[in-house]
């Protein structure tokens, strides 16, 4: 058996939670955390968070659901994208991960788990806000993986601005460039490479329906991604390509302590928003991406899978 790489001390799971299939009370599947007030510069390093989120390093159990697949996962260095990368590898997929150059350490940590699962991890640092970058990323991924049949758009930015006057046109545009334009451009560039049976999964948010007043640019991008994906799904289903969306609720990731939310709100992060009474760990979001990428969801097209701890959705 392959030696597992060293694992960081992460948010504790319930005692009986050995893997994602263990029968546990969802309210306590992972600890209710009270993170101390902390702040890093965007995009931040997950390894420096307190506490470090759980990516499923010790718990995610693969059962061959993505055997032989080749996936591009943006934002695969940390948080939800990282947990998805580990899950995909354990399900049998090779993965190309994109991330910003300053996130190299986090990316290498994730790659070590992908490789321990016996799969390939291609590391592709890139700023998706730069012109032409999304298409160039796809080209590099296709070349390195020898093809592509799964696109997973997870990268996103969220900078809170409590007052409208502080939300400059530049930030508004930058948030849309990374969250919406890059998602579109990646799909467009990937299209000629995707055989029938391929899947695209984009990432919205509970904020698509319940925008927080201090994140209106971010929330608007998430509404746009939801809508864009449903339109794309209808167009691409005629080619046998399925498009779906995962819409997470509050999840403990480095997005939060990098100006994503008011730092003073961090100790209560997730507890009040989600009826489940706690924030999710990235390990709990990843299975949704696995399901929507696996052929077991063949009849699921243009759907949004809300993984949000019980927040009502339309
Ligand atoms: P995260 O910070 O761990 O991941 C976001 C990633 O986006 C970063 O690691 C970075 O690699 C990438 N990124 C940001 N700007 C980029 C740029 N200019 N170029 C290239 N890559 C860039 O945080 P996360 O919470 O795991 O976020 C993943 C996705 O989940 C995002 O789309 C986010 O909007 C969404 N989401 C998160 C939550 C939550 O509570 N954490 C809730 C709903 C939706
Ligand atoms: Mg990161």
TrEMBL record:
InterPro entries found in the cross-reference section: KR_dom, NAD(P)-bd_dom_sf, Sc_DH/Rdtase_CS, SDR_fam
Keywords: Oxidoreductase
Entries under Pfam families matching the protein: adh_short_C2
Domain Ketoreductase, chain residue ranges per copy: 69-255
Domain of life: Bacteria
Entry keyword Oxidoreductase: yes
A Gene Ontology molecular function term of the record: oxidoreductase activity, acting on CH-OH group of donors
Sequence segments annotated as region (Disordered): 1-20, 36-61
PANTHER family assigned to the protein according to its UniProt record, in alphabetical order: NADPH-DEPENDENT ALDEHYDE REDUCTASE 1, CHLOROPLASTIC, NADPH-DEPENDENT ALDEHYDE REDUCTASE-LIKE PROTEIN, CHLOROPLASTIC-RELATED
Family label: Belongs to the short-chain dehydrogenases/reductases (SDR) family.
Protein known as: Dehydrogenase
Organism: Arenivirga flava
